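Could someone model zinc ion with this protein?
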Amino acid sequence: MTASPLSQVLKGRLLTFSDRPRSVDDTESYAYWAHGALAIQGGKIVWRGDAAKLPQVYQTWQVMDHRDHLILPGFIDTHTHFPQMGVIGSYGAQLLDWLETYTYKQEARFEDTLYCQTVANAFLDELINNGVTTAAVYATSHPGSAHALFEAAHARDMRMIAGKVLMDRGAPDAVCDTPQRAYDESKYLIDAWHNEGRLSYAITPRFAITSSPAQLELMQALAAENTGCYVQTHLSENQFEIDETLRLYPAAKDYTGVYEDYGLLGPRSLLGHCIHLSDRELGALKNSDSIAVFCPSSNLFLGSGLFDYSGMIEADIRVGFGTDVGAGTSYSMLATAADAYKICQLKGYSLNPFESYFGLTLGNARALSLEGKIGTLEVGTEADLCVLNSHATSAMRTRMESVNSLAEELFVLQTLGDDRSIAETYVGGRARKTSAI
Ligand SMILES: [Zn+2]
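Reply:
Sure, complex below.
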């Protein structure tokens, strides 16, 4: 653990959301201060508003001046795989081939503790480079991989959700466990890390194909014994995956029905992809308050299909946005929003920029049931922030010459921006990208 951050004031343009913006004109859904100030103490926001109205008591505090930049809540990634850093951008396969050809071979390397530590640290540095302060992360089936990620996140005081992947069949032995090992190792990791500082555990069966009924049965018991933990898995990404799942679970009503039968749906269940769902399955997600996680970059890269974002919103199903690195091709949530926009266009829905940034911040905090802790600039919440520079590259500077509104600026940032547009990332009030305060 690092020492408690200094009391400080950040100056800049502040943007924070209170609800999902229905349009760019939905000014009720967000607050914006063109000359804002944010006072931080003990890792939490203690005041925010117009800089000219900064109370006397904060005026002697150290000031970080980000005046021309936008200060937003830190971005949240609700679905990513840290062990896949080594296979991001691997060519020419759809889901099941991609797993077999690249992913399982790469994940086998995580038997090595030192390798786990090296990649875990590199991964968290990459998140910070991209303004991402919280993520829901898959490790590998090796408990050491999850342990290394928790250890590295704890050292940075990051709010992080992660779990060891559970898989006992349909993949090489080097990446498989057994039902009992899956239970015992998950239990050990829950005891060691769940609610330790800002960390939470996610029970993480990879997907139904690689978990036997015996394993899912034990995971049901584990989830029932640890109701504060998350459950994260994949659902209905690709037609071959769906067909194989139904072959392996012939008694299930459908793919969603497999998880339903084993009690794995619920308000803390993060279901990656959810592309090819029937009305019955959508109803099951809604009734259980499960979360559909939209991973646009990955869905385009693997040719998996087009997520029905507006349909999910209409059906009142909670939606998270995720990178799904390494099938997703960028660590950047800006790039993720850009790809989400393109998929929504193909589905006949224009995702407005305010809605995108709501999704990356408060929307994702709600998806993780963490509203009130992260995802806004509200007083009392944790000071996880990203500072955005919409003039970071020459192409952006040229484009910004003809930008006349905040909505346009946000859209340019998501379309042309990347890690270079993240001027700073604060984790618990501490600058983590460019310097240590
Ligand atoms: Zn995934």
